[in-house]
Amino acid sequence: MSFESSPGGLTPDQLTFFQENGYLILPSSLSPSTVTSLLSETHSLLSSFDISTHPLTKFSTGGESGEDHVGDSYFLESGDKIRFFFEEDAFSPTGELLKPKEKAVNKIGHYLHVLSPPFSALFDSSSPRPADVAKSLGFRDARCLQSMVICKQPEIGGAVPPHQDSTFLYTDPPSAVGFWYALEDATLENGCLSFLPGSHRWAAIDKRLVRGGKSGTEMVENDGPRFPPGGEYGEDKKPEGAEGEYVPGEVKAGDLVLIHGNLLHKSEKNLSQKGRIIYTFHVIEGAEGWAYDGRNWLQPPEGGFTRLLK
């Protein structure tokens, strides 16, 4: 289900849907001219980066266990830079790149919202503005801590298994919300998102991706709070019997998808001839009472994470 965008933030119906389902689709949140600008910037970044000095880091979610998640220094030091990560299937068994670099990159991250003027401008050009959405969701000091372009390349765009964003961007207590903007149509054919509605209420953040281990990151048991504050959350909220079915979220270019940090969601591999470029950033609560853990793979840049509410 999707709703018409509201310039001043979320309407009561939109907020209720998000609270009940853990996601929300807002059509036409970006104008066609903004979409064109962001796609142009994406293609410029892809064509201009120097592959001769690149470590050819492949992006991996690590599968169900997270054990093989990318964790080298190129990744761990990308929080205040623009860096490029390749699709796993872009390489031959001997390590040779099988595609032109523009068709081999999985992700560009993680500081686009500061270092790229077109992506930075989205904070004011999106309707509703991210700051107004954050206010609607109850954030007191919303901070943008990472941003990414995900390309989901034709034929080799990798599948992303069911996961929760707060596993990777943990605050105590959990507070992450994803803002996911389609820059091209995302369909079942080219690997759109799918959601398990309502799972944010009962799916605890049991594990966390932290710095450490042989690969630079490791998945560990979460010994902190596993849900945001509030009586609507808890493992006792899990429905009896079947957990439900994943619901596909097909969207058009310019649409915004909001994703609760505890929500289980996934995407399938893109075997089609059409790519699926999107832009996403994540927001956490920076107010007193929420702590950002020093073990998280992503650490704040000098000056701290970007404040949305000014």
Automatic annotation (TrEMBL):
The keyword DNA damage does not apply. This is Phytanoyl-CoA dioxygenase. One of its GO terms (molecular function) is metal ion binding. Residues 215-243 are annotated as: Disordered. It comes from Podospora australis. Keywords: Iron, Metal-binding. The lineage of its organism: Eukaryota, Fungi, Dikarya, Ascomycota, Pezizomycotina. Its cofactor is Fe cation. It comes from the Eukaryota. The keyword Cell division does not apply.
